[in-house]
Amino acid sequence: MSHVRLTPKRQIVYDTVVQLANHPSAVEIMASLQASGKKLAYATVYNSLRYLTDVGLLQELTVGGTYSRYDARVENHHHVICQACGRVDEVAREIPLPFLRAIEQESGYDIKLADLVIKGICPACRRQQEM
């Protein structure tokens, strides 16, 4: 990727995603900006997120097809998502090569990148369900 120059507003949005580090949604990013006294229009935030994703500075995670979350960690890694509260955590384990080769054999695809999303119930929600 060539050097990307960010406008001041895009830099603010990027810095906010990095600072939050919890895979924030656009709404959470807006709330954080407002809480810190930064006044950016919703359209500016959404357009900045799209741009930052397009140039590879952010990774967009679609959660349940209803909204996206953003991750400033763009190197290959995976995510586990709580189906109860929407919490997103990162998983650093590699996908076993035999599994990927079996998928290639079954599908005919030449797999270049695997981005695994695992869904389940987080520890906090499990504790609440047990009460």
From TrEMBL:
It comes from the Bacteria. SUPFAM superfamilies: Winged helix' DNA-binding domain (SSF46785). One of its GO terms (molecular function) is DNA-binding transcription factor activity. Pfam families: FUR (PF01475). Binds 1 zinc ion per subunit. GO terms for biological process: negative regulation of DNA-templated transcription; regulation of secondary metabolite biosynthetic process. Keywords: DNA-binding, Metal-binding, Repressor, Transcription, Transcription regulation, Zinc. Its cofactor is Zn(2+). InterPro entries: FUR (IPR002481), Fur_C (IPR043135), WH-like_DNA-bd_sf (IPR036388), WH_DNA-bd_sf (IPR036390). Zn(2+) binds at C82, C85, C122, C125. Belongs to the Fur family. This is Fur family transcriptional regulator.
